[in-house]
């Protein structure tokens, strides 16, 4: 019988008068993975932060209940422990991996300094011994060239490598419990598959329990033993992963399952027109090296390499590929937010290539961007009426006296109430904020919207609402989209055609069904093989591979 590692009983978490978690009880055993799922605001992260007693730093408090951690045959109530004793447990007995490693790592310290600190603090090692142990920790999480990585800074690593560094720090002291809060949400499918396999393999090696928080039901099917479903701070269902996927009992659980995109379900897009809205020919973008004062023009990184794509009126081109392959650089180069090295870009009959800066503004009206993080895209000090009409004011397409009515028409167009125009960004959910970003893009009646990972940070039900909105706008107004995403199932649902990008080049393009059913390029096949299926019967991680090879991400 495996040992119980964690018992959470009747946990209540509050922010002021608002109760974010309402009487939650969970139990987790060694070598077990419990997935905690639910929409944004359901209480998942609040629960995780409460277990580590970090909730107080976020303005919350534990209002009731017990959080008991196994310790030498007894249980410690973490909810009642003083801060000095908690500090000895964090990173030692209980560790946490957060969603965004770049914000969790100190940008001014080397990787070696940050990983070494764990050994100095919790193992009492000298700096020299800790540095050596840090190299071994990086090697254990299959980071290539660990000795060289120790001297690098976080910005010099890819997203996948940064997440591995966070896992190395979390596992350095062989914790009893690992809390993983959306650790793969921002990663492409191949990197995600590697991280999931890594966690499962190391879990088998050291016997730790894992509390895995995610909104990706494919990941749940891949890694979880049991699943707890949260809604508005309440657990509505808990079941074995196979039972939950085959026979979900709670209506909310069934809605989550129904909203999960599944590769192979096909698309609901309409017919595209014949008119070309976006034409990109031979586009290349290079990032110059700053380490060499007299570097030649050919030095540096060729992030986009001779790319040519076309998007027709009323068509969506899905752009997929691994992190660092050049997708976002291509998007920004099209609008000359990043200056390309060469190539030709035409949007709605207007050639952007070679235009002087003063003439770019009017041409950019025909194409607008929607970014991944809507909160970072919206000025928190401005009301919605000013935010959604900003492009229209810049381009002079609406009179000052008409701005309020115009703002109301924009927010209702994306499914929000008229009174939303007098509120501020923090008063909206993540999905609502993304609707505001789309409303802002629509304010200048663009012919093309470039959506750069616009739904990747949203839970499955909200992401489906946003993609449904995009499809409705396309059918009604003939909008074209360049839809960038690492979620291939979402891309399939919304796209007419798919372009696959690898190391700055488009290696395959064609109709959605053709590329996904009969991929011609080996890299496309690799991407498709890495997509997790929301069906635990098809999971690939049940028996972790011994001797997992080092993989460069």
- Helix count from the secondary structure assignment: 22
How large is the radius of gyration? Answer: 24 Å
N- to C-terminal separation? Answer: 38 Å
CATH superfamily of the domain at 4-259: P-loop containing nucleotide triphosphate hydrolases
Here the CATH topology of the domain at 4-259 equals Rossmann fold
Mean pLDDT: 88
The proportion of residues in beta strands is 15-25%
The spatial strand order of the largest sheet comes to 6-7-8-3-9-10
Q: How would a crystallographer describe the biggest sheet?
A: 6 strands, mixed
Instruction: Please tell me what the overall shape is.
Output: globular
CATH C-level class of the domain at 4-259? Alpha Beta
Unreliable parts = 542-553
CATH architecture of the domain at 4-259: 3-Layer(aba) Sandwich
Total strands: the figure is: 20
Alpha-beta content class: alpha/beta
Query: Helical content, roughly?
Result: 25-40%
Descriptive notes:
The chain has 553 residues and is α/β, with parallel strands linked by helices. It has a domain at 4-259: 3-Layer(aba) Sandwich (Rossmann fold), CATH 3.40.50.300. The chain is built from 22 helices and 20 strands. A 6-stranded mixed sheet has the order 6-7-8-3-9-10, sandwiched between helices. The protein has a 6-stranded mixed sheet with strand order 16-17-18-13-19-20, sandwiched between helices. Residues 542-553 have low confidence and may be disordered.
Descriptors for this entry?
553 residues, membrane, alpha/beta, P-loop_NTPase, 36% helix, 22 helices, disordered C terminus, EC 7.4.2.10, Rossmann fold, 20 strands, hydrolase, six-stranded mixed β-sheet, Glutathione import ATP-binding protein GsiA
């Amino acid at each position: 019988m495996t040992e119980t590692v964690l018992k959470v009983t009747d946990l209540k978490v509050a922010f002021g008068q608002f109760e974010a978690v309402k009487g939650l009880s969970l139990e987790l055993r060694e070598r077990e993975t419990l997935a905690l799922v639910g929409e944004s605001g359901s209480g998942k992260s609040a629960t995780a932060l409460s277990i580590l007693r970090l909730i107080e730093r976020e303005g919350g408090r534990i209002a009731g209940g017990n959080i008991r951690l196994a310790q030498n045959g007894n249980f410690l109530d973490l909810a009642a422990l003083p801060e000095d004793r908690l500090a000895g447990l964090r990173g030692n007995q209980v560790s946490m991996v957060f969603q965004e490693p770049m914000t969790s790592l100190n940008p001014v310290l080397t990787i070696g300094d940050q990983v070494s600190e764990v050994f100095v603090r919790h193992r009492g090692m000298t700096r020299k011994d800790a540095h050596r142990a840090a190299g071994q920790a990086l090697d254990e999480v299959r980071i290539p060239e660990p000795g060289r990585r120790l001297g690098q800074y976080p910005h010099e690593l890819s997203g996948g490598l940064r997440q591995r560094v966070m896992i190395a720090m979390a596992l350095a002291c062989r914790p009893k419990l690992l809390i993983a809060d959306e650790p793969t949400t921002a990663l492409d499918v191949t990197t995600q598959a590697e991280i999931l396999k890594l966690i499962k393999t190391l879990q088998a090696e050291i016997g730790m329990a894992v509390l895995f928080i995610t909104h990706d039901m494919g990941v749940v099917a891949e890694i979880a033993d049991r699943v707890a479903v949260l809604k508005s701070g309440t657990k509505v269902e808990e079941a074995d992963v196979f039972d939950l996927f085959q026979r979900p009992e709670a209506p909310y659980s069934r809605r989550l399952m129904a909203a999960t995109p599944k590769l192979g379900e096909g698309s609901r897009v309409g017919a595209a027109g014949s008119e070309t809205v976006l034409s990109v020919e031979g586009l290349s973008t290079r990032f110059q090296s700053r380490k060499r004062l007299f570097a030649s023009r050919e030095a540096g990184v060729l992030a986009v390499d001779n790319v040519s794509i076309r998007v027709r009126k009323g068509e969506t081109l899905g752009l997929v590929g691994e992190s660092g392959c050049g997708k976002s650089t291509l998007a920004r180069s099209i609008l000359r937010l990043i200056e390309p090295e060469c190539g030709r870009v035409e949007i709605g009959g207007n050639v952007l290539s070679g235009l002087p800066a003063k003439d770019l503004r009017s041409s950019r009206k025909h194409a607008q961007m929607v970014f991944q993080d809507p909160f970072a895209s919206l000025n928190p000090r401005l009301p919605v009426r000013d935010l959604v009409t900003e492009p229209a004011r810049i381009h002079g397409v609406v009179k000052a006296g008409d701005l309020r009515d115009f703002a109301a028409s924009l927010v209702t167009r994306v499914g929000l109430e008229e009174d939303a125009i007098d509120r501020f960004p923090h008063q909206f959910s993540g999905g609502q904020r993304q609707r505001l970003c789309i409303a802002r893009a629509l304010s200048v009646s663009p012919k093309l919207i470039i959506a750069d990972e616009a739904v990747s940070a949203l839970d499955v039900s909200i992401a489906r609402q946003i993609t449904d909105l995009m499809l409705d706008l396309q059918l009604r107004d003939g909008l074209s989209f360049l839809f960038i995403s690492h979620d291939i199932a979402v891309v399939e649902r919304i796209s007419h055609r798919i372009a696959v990008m690898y190391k700055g080049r488009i290696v395959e393009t064609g109709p959605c069904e053709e590329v996904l059913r009969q991929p011609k390029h080996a890299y496309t096949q690799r991407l498709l093989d890495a997509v997790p299926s929301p069906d635990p019967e098809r999971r690939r991680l049940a028996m972790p591979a011994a001797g997992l090879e080092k993989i460069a991400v």
